[in-house]
Amino acid sequence: MRDTCKNGLIGAALLMAVGTSAWAAGPVGPNDVKFEDATVKASLTGQPGDAAAGRKAFADKKLGNCLACHKNSEMSEQLFHGEVGTPLDGVADRWKPEELRAIVVNSKQVFGPDTVMPGFYTLEVGTHVAKNFQGQTILTAQQVEDIVAYLGTLKE
Amino acid sequence: MKLKSILPVALGALAIGFGASDLRAEPVDDKLIIDGEKEMITRTKAPEGHPFDEVLSGWLFRTPETRAMEADSFQNPAMLYVERGAEIWNTVDGAAGKSCASCHGDAAESMKNVGAHYPKWNAAAGKPYNIELQVNDCRAKNMQAEPYKFDHADQKALVTFIKHQSLGTPMGIDLSQGEMKSWWEKGKDLYYTRTGQLNLACASCHEANAGKYIRADHLSQGNVNGFPTYRLKQANMVSLHNRFRGCIRDTRAEQPKAFSDELMALEVYVTWRGTGLSIETPAVRQ
Fold it and tell me: Where in the sequence is the signal peptide annotated (chain A) (predicted)?
């Protein structure tokens, strides 16, 4: 959690350094996210994430729907955790916040093009996207930050 | 782009998987014997060029209750649709005053094992035909009746009845007819094409992750040998193209039309992937 906050501040500072116009434009757009060595250093919104909101977005079938593929013991009140992805218990011990952000934004930048994990804040998507989802990301920038903050709490 | 190795993590996950007794990551070791008499082939050696060594029926991935329901034709709710299909078979419809039986007689003889070898090349149409398209052709040309609209209740019942005449017969299509091979190729391309906002291909779920749970669903190899299938979730018969469309919709992609070239190519390819499995129609699935 502390790390995420710190990163948020650094992110804010970076954005300010780039120019105030970045603020006027709102969050970093999906095509402008900067990946460096499989990390995304700055908060997408310049704001720290809210872990409690992230916990909800993680479980929400219309948002992250992360449980479809991942087991997460911290959410044992939810039935049926998927097995397609790695169990997320202790995930914050294995990955730094800037790595977790990169994974959620566009996992293909971290795991390679063959991963089945969807990119949640990218427009690099499959063919024939349904009309109501065209040009849109699965999560908003703030929802990504919230989920990253929540993942940061998953320590063993 | 730097790729971080995930191997140690993956191995860790495997170790956890072994310890957890509530997870059934494997298809069951069980035999499907309908009414204690007729044994179905639910596992068989894959045809040459197949990504798996063994092809498995979706039945092996279902719960004990669902498996039992399919094994007992008194319990299988879809047997009502087989009966309804038999009625339609014998019912006169259309301006020519004919029923299916007027031309084909007793389906137990004329349709025995026929459904197991569809889709078939249709030279006049210049494309592969499945049973639905063949039935519609017969209705239009021989009965002078309206073709069925996609997923009309009578279409599903009649196709279920026809496929049921192949119960137990190993599925196998002839790719040497007409241009079947190029349709197979096109279907294969589609099978590996990632679609939709979720960016998933058929292979992402049914090849890379067969045997694993995706939320509450135990992913099978996505074989077609049970179709039309009774789905408990919908309490109704589900046609193959309806299932394809549902899986594609779940990737948040536009759904191709039923019987479109895309879905016919996919049907040819996916039917081939299940070569050698018994026709189980009507299967029962979640």
Answer: 1-24
Residue B192 CB partners (closer than 8 Å, separation 6+):
B201, B202, B203
- Structure confidence by residue, pLDDT tens digits, B58-99: 999 999 999 999 999 999 999 999 999 999 999 999 999 999
What is the reported pLDDT for A26? 86
Comparing CB atoms, the residue among B1, B196, B219 nearest residue A126 is B196
Question: What is the value of pTM for the model shown?
Answer: 0.90
Residue B283 annotated among the catalytic residues of the structure: no
Q: Classify the C-alpha dihedral A47-A53-A58-A60 as positive or negative.
A: negative
- Please answer yes or no on whether A111 and B3 come within 8 Å at the CB atom: yes
CB B68 within 8 A of CB B74: no
Q: Report the C-alpha gap between B273 and B19 in whole angstroms.
A: 33
Q: Residue B139, annotated ligand binder? A: no
| Residue A116: alpha-carbon gap to chain centroid | 16
Identify the pLDDT of residue B18: 34
Side-chain-facing half-sphere of A36: CA atoms under 13 Å: 5
- For the stretch A132-146, pLDDT in tens is 999 999 999 999 999
Q: Flag whether pLDDT at A121 surpasses 50.
A: yes
Nearest CA distance, B120 vs chain A (angstrom): 28
A36 contacts A105 by C-beta, under 8 angstroms: no
Closest CA to B281 of B198, B225, B233: B225
Both tokens assigned to B281: 């129609």
Q: Report the pLDDT value the prediction gives residue B26, as an integer from 0 to 100.
A: 77
CA distance readout (Å), B221 to A94, B183, B208, B280:
32, 21, 9, 15
Q: How much of chain B exceeds pLDDT 90, in percent?
A: 91
Architecture of domain B11-76+176-285: Orthogonal Bundle (1.10)
Q: Which CATH number fits domain B79-164: 3.40.50.10540, 1.10.10.60, 1.10.760.10, 3.40.50.150?
A: 1.10.760.10
Write the pLDDT tens digit of every residue in A23-69: 556 899 999 999 999 999 999 999 999 999 999 999 999 999 999 99
Q: Is A76 near chain B, with CB under 8 Å?
A: no
Do the first three CATH levels of B11-76+176-285 and B79-164 match, i.e. the same topology?
Answer: yes
